[in-house]
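Batch manifest, entry 17 of 40.
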Amino acid sequence: MTVLIFFATIEGQTGKIARFVADQARKAGHEVLLVDAADNTAEISFKGVDKVILAASVHERRHPSTFEVFLTAQRKALEAHDTLLLSVSLKAAFPEGLEEAQDYVTEMNMRTGFTPDTQALVAGAVRTGSYDYFASQVVRHVVLRGQDADVNAGDQEFTDWAALEATVAGFLAG
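Output type: structure tokens
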């Protein structure tokens, strides 16, 4: 089976997740096409592709525009395949943020006209080295408001790798 993994990352966590998923699919014996949305030279063909995994981070309530443009432009091709969306956000790291994390996906579906067959809300990471003062304040006082996480403590990863592995294994087997 051939699996296309299309991802959009801003600070690198979603890229790390996409590579983890690609390694998992390869270990399961699948051929993998890994495509970064930032690669403007990538030629994407759905010929021979059996399943599609879409992964994108959320910043300021939205997935990257390059990702959403791809979903919109390739909607018909995507609808012809079994698809899994991995929506990566800090809100998904905490039970009280899951509803908002789901809202990000719902809003993206409405904007793009595409709804994946399966979706998973995946907890992201805090990458303090990539934040300016304003971004660090938004992360601290909006995104992580009321959570036991300190932006000043350095990079923090919230991704549940075991849960992600189980989700992907289920999708690939189904």
